[in-house]
Amino acid sequence: xxxxxxxxxxxxxxxxxxxxxxxxxxxxxxxxxxxxxxxxxxxxxxxxxxxxxxxxxxxxxxxxxxxxxxxxxxxxxxxxxxxxxxxxxxxxxxxxxxxxxxxxxxxxxxxxxxxxxxxxxxxxxxxxxxxxxxxxxxxxxxxxxxxxxxxxxxxxxxxxxxxxxxxxxxxxxx
Length: 174
Fold this sequence. Notes:
Blueprint: H1 2-23, H2 27-53, H3 58-75, H4 80-113, E1 139-141, E2 146-152, E3 158-163, E4 168-172
Antiparallel strand pairs: 1-2, 2-3, 3-4
């Protein structure tokens, strides 16, 4: 029994770690939790039925018990919700901090040339972008202002925006 508990605990830790680092508090994380819930329901029902009708056969008891242990492991995935939310919040803060570090250079270029640059960091194009800024056009320059904008993965239609006209970050949610 101790071996089963240790195996279930290891599986639970691995499942939660995968959900936190893959899902990262995103909508994908929510979909993974929904899938885990339905699998939990199926395993619980199957394990219960197998134990109910096969309690006299050792192999069926093992299968039924295994299904219920697997269901318990899936139930532990709720632990990943607050952890994933923290990881997502940290990703958003990293993206904001990166953009905030670009602002002085953008203002300097505006003073020198009279306009904001087309690209936020021409001298450091190889700079390591935060995860939420990779592969997107997060910067937009206009004549008198610029904006930063990126997707908030924790919301279906959530965005985080910065507008240089008012100098504040705004988080839009659905």
